[in-house]
Q: What sequence folds into this?
């Protein structure tokens, strides 16, 4: 019944063209149909803000879909507001498939989740689209799995448009090609993939937990070494600084103004290596980053830095966007460059300033009304207190940390590769089943 209905809705010549482009050879009785022929589409325009005079609602947002394959009442939905028209059009129903319709990278567009239970008063939020399966044509759980498949991912990637943010418009979503068997086989496929992906997801979750533990261990190792040293038997004293707590008695605590000098040298050509700084990677060449933002036509007038300089992203210091440069280069004029005194080991400074606890501390000195608008200016930075061991001890700490973190990084890399292979295996299994290469009814 479903195959004949799809054939009537979708001309065979058009189906064959899409078949060869995205899905290859399908089993007899299957049809390639466009999403608009098997589901009703709605794009949401309800944002996270509460507007006076509108109805209070719970909002299913981008993060809820991105982090959950299934939308259930267990998710802590945010509060927002919506008009009567929006509530009528965008209230979620069981079997609805939600998709992320725009993102900062084209790879993250079209991530789906299925509403797997009856919900009351939950509205589809901004950056999302609803695909509601037509009765007697498509099953939501099957449609959800189809959208997870490699052909649909490639289709979304090819149709995503944008420069600093990528998106799919309603037309592109409507034309999404779906390989469609009859309802009985759709149901069997959904049940089979639910069982099999649950096993793979459990393996993925276990390895993600190991990655989190490694990250915490690395963080704790660095924090202890740069705030307490390597000698467990060293006498301690109260540093007088809340975030530092007790430190080795022979260490000093000094204001940044006695340890750093602001440098404001400018490039006359803009030909030097452009560096950028983030809370994840510290200071790195921009050429090594996958950045979608516009670059200035000329980098003349950008600030110069040399190895050992501390670079702080003034706008994002509260997030930990700071680190030491280990090569000559230029940085944005909105950054601040600080040159350490000779009794600071640059690698020790880099470990110190990239600790999350240090970012929390400098946030106290930053200026701004909202957390996302805080700025760390030189005068405020110079009021931050630093622990200062002897230069020899700093070097010992750094050598120890480089050895130990290298081991942890190697384990992390192996786990990430295992995760990648598991995710590829899951996608390959889904693709094989929803395209009929694996027939779960046989």
A:
């Amino acid at each position: 019944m479903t195959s004949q209905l799809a054939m009537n809705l979708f001309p065979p010549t058009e189906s064959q063209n899409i078949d060869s482009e995205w899905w290859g050879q399908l089993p007899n009785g299957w049809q390639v149909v466009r999403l608009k022929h098997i589901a009703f589409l709605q794009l949401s325009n309800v944002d996270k803000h509460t507007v006076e005079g509108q109805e209070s609602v719970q909002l299913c947002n981008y993060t809820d879909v991105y982090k959950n394959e299934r939308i259930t009442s267990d998710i802590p939905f945010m509060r927002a507001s919506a008009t009567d028209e929006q509530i009528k059009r965008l209230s979620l129903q069981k079997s609805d498939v939600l998709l992320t319709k725009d993102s900062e990278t084209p790879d993250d567009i079209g991530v789906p989740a299925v509403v797997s239970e009856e919900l009351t008063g939950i509205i589809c939020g901004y950056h999302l689209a609803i695909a509601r399966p037509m009765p007697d044509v498509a099953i939501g759980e099957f449609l959800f799995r189809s959208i997870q498949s490699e052909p649909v991912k490639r289709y979304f990637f090819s149709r995503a448009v944008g420069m600093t943010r990528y998106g799919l418009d309603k037309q592109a979503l409507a034309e999404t090609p779906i390989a469609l068997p009859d309802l009985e086989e759709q149901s069997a496929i959904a049940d089979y993939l639910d069982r099999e992906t649950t096993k793979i997801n459990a393996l993925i979750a276990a390895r993600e937990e190991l990655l989190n533990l490694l990250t915490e261990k690395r963080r704790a190792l660095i924090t202890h070494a740069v705030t307490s040293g390597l000698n467990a038997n060293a006498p301690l004293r109260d540093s007088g600084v809340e975030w530092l707590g007790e430190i080795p008695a022979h260490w000093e605590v000094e204001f940044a103004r006695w340890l750093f000098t602001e440098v404001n040298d400018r490039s006359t050509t803009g030909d030097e290596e452009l560096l950028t700084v983030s809370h994840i990677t510290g200071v790195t060449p921009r050429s090594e980053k996958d950045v979608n933002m516009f670059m200035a036509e000329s980098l003349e007038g950008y600030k110069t830095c040399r190895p050992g300089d501390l670079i702080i992203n003034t706008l994002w210091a509260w997030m930990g966007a700071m680190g030491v440069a280990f090569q000559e280069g230029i940085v944005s004029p909105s950054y601040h460059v600080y040159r350490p005194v000779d009794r600071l080991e640059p690698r020790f400074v880099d470990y110190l300033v990239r600790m999350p606890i240090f970012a929390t501390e400098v946030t106290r000195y930053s200026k701004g009304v909202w957390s996302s608008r805080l700025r760390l200016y030189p005068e405020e930075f110079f009021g931050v207190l630093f622990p200062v061991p002897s230069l020899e001890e700093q070097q010992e700490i750094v050598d120890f940390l480089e050895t130990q973190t290298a081991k942890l990084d190697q384990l992390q890399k192996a786990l990430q590769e295992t995760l990648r292979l598991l995710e590829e295996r899951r996608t390959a299994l889904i693709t094989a089943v929803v395209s009929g290469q694996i027939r779960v009814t046989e």
User: Anything to note?
Assistant: The chain is about 40% helix and 20% strand. The CA atoms of residues 63 and 100 lie 9 Å apart.
